[in-house]
Each structure stands twice: as C-alpha cells, then as structure tokens.
Amino acid sequence: MMSSQPSSLHIAFFPYLVHGHMIPTIDMARIFARKGVKASIICTPNNASLFSKTIERDREQGYDISFLTIKFPSAEVGLPEGCEHGNSLYTEEMLTKFHKATTLLQEPLEQLLKEHNPDCLVADMMYPWATEAASSVEIPRLVFHGMSSSARCMFDCLYRYKPHKNVESDFDPFILPGLPDQITMTKLQVPPFIKEENQDAIQIFEAELNCYGVVLNSFYELEPAYIEHYRRVMGRKAWQIGPVSLCNKDNEDKLQRGGLGSIYEQVYCLTWLASKEPNSVLYICFGSRFNFSAVQFLEIAKALESSGVKFIWVVNTGQEMKSDEDNEEWLPEGFEKKMEGKGLIIRGWAPQVLILDQEATGGFMTHCGWNSILEGVAAGVPMITWPLQAEQFCNEKLVTDVLRIGVGVGAQEWTRSHERKILLRKEGIEKAVSRLMVGVEAEDFRKRAEALKEMAGKAIEQGGSSYSDLNALLEELRSIKSG
Ligand code: UDP
C-alpha cells in the first residue's frame, strides 16, 4: 500500500448518475484511497465501466479502491433496459422517470451497506434519503455537494428571504440580502424549482440539516467569505477538499476522465492545440448535458468567425437534435473548411482538463457548471460565462463579480436544453470573445486567474487548506469509528 497514512477506515461513495456528479465523486474516492482509506464506489454496471480503467490503474498502484455495483431499476419506471445514465435522457418525461428510479435505490443501498459494512457513506446531494440508509447501519452520512459554497449560500438566501418576490418585472435586478458581497440577480435567473418552491428540491437542500456534514469540491482561498458564511451563518459542518480534478496527475488519467470520447479525436485536438501560440485559443464547452438549438449554434459560429479568434468548440450533436430539427443547418455553409487551422470542432467528448492545461488555451467559454469553473480556475484560464440553468447563474456571479476572472456573455434567463430559440445573438457573443481574448482587460483577467491557479495547487499540497480539511475529516471519522 502506497498510502501516506495507514488507516482502517472504509468509506462508501455513492454518486448521482450523471457525468457532472460522477466525475468529481470518482476523483474524490481516489483522493481518499490515496490517504489509505478503503474506498468503495457504489455505481450501476454501465456507469462503472466508464471509469473502470482509471480505477484499475489505481488498484495496480496498490490503492484499495473498487466498485460495488447496484442494479438500476430502469424497467420499474418504464425506461429502456440499460438506461441508467442521466446524460443519455433528453425528454423531461424521461428525466422524471430517471429521478424516480433513483429514489427506488434506497433499499438496495441499505442491503449493500449491510453486506459491506463501511464506516461512513458519502452520498450525493440528490439522494436526500441516503441519510436514512446510513442510519439503518448506524454510520454517518456525508452529503457531497456538486455545488460551490457561494452558490449554496445564494440558494439559501433565495429560499430564506425570497427577494425575487419583491420585484415587479422579470428583468428588475434585486440584491441577495445578507451575503458577503453585493450580488444582484433578476427573477429570470432564479431557478424555477426555487420560484415554484418545489418540494423535492427543498427536501434535497434540507437533507443537509440531518446528515453528519457536507463535503464540497472547492478550496478555502477561492471563496473564503462564503465558506465562512456557510459554516457560521448557515451553521453547516463542511469540509472543502478540492479542486478534486487535480488528483489526475498523469496524462492517461486526464485523457480518460469521464470515460468517453474517441482517443483519435482527442489526440488530434491536443496536437492541434500544441501547434498554437500561448493564450491564443478559446476553448468552448457547455458541459456534459446542455444542448443548444441549431439556430443558437449558428449565432455562435458566426461570432467565432467574425471575431478572428482561434478556438476549440465542443458541440453535443446528440440524437435529440437530429430528431427535433432534422434537416436544420447548425453551422454556416462551409464553416469548417473556412476555419481550417483556425478552429476545431469536437463532436462529442473533449479531454477538458488536458485542453485547459495547455499553454495555448487562453480562454474558456463555459456554461458555468461548477466542475468546469473549478477546472478553469485550477488551470489559470480566464472565462467567458454563459450560464444556462441549475445554479450556473450563481457561479457566474462568483467568476465575474467576486473573483473578476472573466466576462459575462450577457445571458439573461434560466433555460432548458433544446429550447428552439436564440438566447444570444452573434454581436453579444463576439463582443465577449474580443473582451476576453484581445481586449485591454484581458491581461488583468489572466493575472488574477494565474494567481488562483497557484492557490488551487497549494490548497491540495501538504499543509494546504484542502489537504488539512481532508485530514481533519479523516481524523474525525476515525474517532467516530473508535467510539
Ligand atoms: N467534460 C469533459 N469533456 C466534455 C464535456 C464535459 O471532460 O466534452 C467534463 C468536465 O471536465 C466536467 C464535467 O464533464 O468535469 C461537466 O461538469 P460541469 O459541472 O461543468 O457541468 P455539467 O455537465 O454537470 O452541466
């Protein structure tokens, strides 16, 4: 065993079955395993296979990490057999069924916990019932938040004070009261599940109150005031142990992170990138789930072309687009030919952390998913923020208003995937691209982003804030175990 601290702790990790949650949970389990913990990742067979090579490599290096498979009740909720991954669902109806299926996992989870006897369960925020499952075998349950502390505090403020109810129009800005910074939002940017006081969502956030504590993928220096607010004002017991993506040290790990994508396409794109000048390429990716309409793709393409900036653009031309918008063109005629040498389109899965790490990558247009933001921060890359849904508008505020490492593209409203409309026009997109990549402010954004990169690296090193938080957590779990 190559662990730094011998320990007999056994921890089970149970990710929500979508990429944005599985990827950081797998990273986190690997980090714990490197600390000498026996790490068991509870996962369905198809999802486990996406990460099996990475886990196998860790095992070969002597770490005690493995999967415990659990059957996904697809048929029970009317989903096709084998359909066990949230990213492969495109209709609201399927997503509702998928979430319903996850609620049926409580009993099999309890069985697994009884059989394998871990000392602690780290389960995703999307499983509020996991605390009860952990109690059934008398072990503590930690919630894993895919969110930042700042977004979590902003959500708490929206739930608590409902400032969006005091404005007349959807466009009127209002301040989120009681937060460390003056954060403004509009009603259009507030998630519908908060505006509608959706009970499932409330249950998810309230589950934090009954569990042992919360583990977050962040680091103290990134959002200190919000981490303090979360701990002291909201009263949560929380450990920040990120950025977890930094546990991927070698290129093979980075290339296979997420387990998707063609090796040929990925290597081609990295070679292409290596031939470009430092900080000259804009990387554009809207995460693993969101899909724009063809008309919006066209606006992005036109903006890229007229900006003259080099780019790598990840597009998710999934099946739903082909069926809904069959023969609609999503790129201007001859676009790829015209852009040869200047721009590269990746259809499918990009090796994001590797791309962000490259010297040539000088900017990141992102949908503000928390993993993407943290990966951008860890690589020191300034960003163009284009929030779309979930808590992404809150993450945008952190990037543009608090950290000041990027520019907003001007996204106005919380939106659903595949809405057949233009959210932003070419002109606005082009303006943000120029501001980030060539404008006078670009250097300032880059300097601040570089400084955060350094802090992120230090946070996970011996003596750093995340390193110490992780040790403190392990210490506490050991003392619970020894009673
Ligand atoms: N990702 C990737 N390649 C892609 C798209 C996404 O590696 O082509 C990874 C990305 O690095 C991140 C995760 O998928 O770790 C997406 O998580 P995020 O929270 O940013 O967004 P979500 O997909 O949950 O909306």
UniProtKB/TrEMBL annotation:
Pathway: Pigment biosynthesis; anthocyanin biosynthesis. InterPro entries: UDP_glucos_trans, UDP_glycos_trans_CS. The keyword Zinc does not apply. Its EC number is 2.4.1.-. CDD domains: GT1_Gtf-like. Keywords: Glycosyltransferase, Transferase. Pfam families: UDPGT (PF00201). One of its GO terms (molecular function) is anthocyanidin 3-O-glucosyltransferase activity. It catalyses: an anthocyanidin + UDP-alpha-D-glucose + H(+) = an anthocyanidin 3-O-beta-D-glucoside + UDP. Belongs to the UDP-glycosyltransferase family. This is Glycosyltransferase.
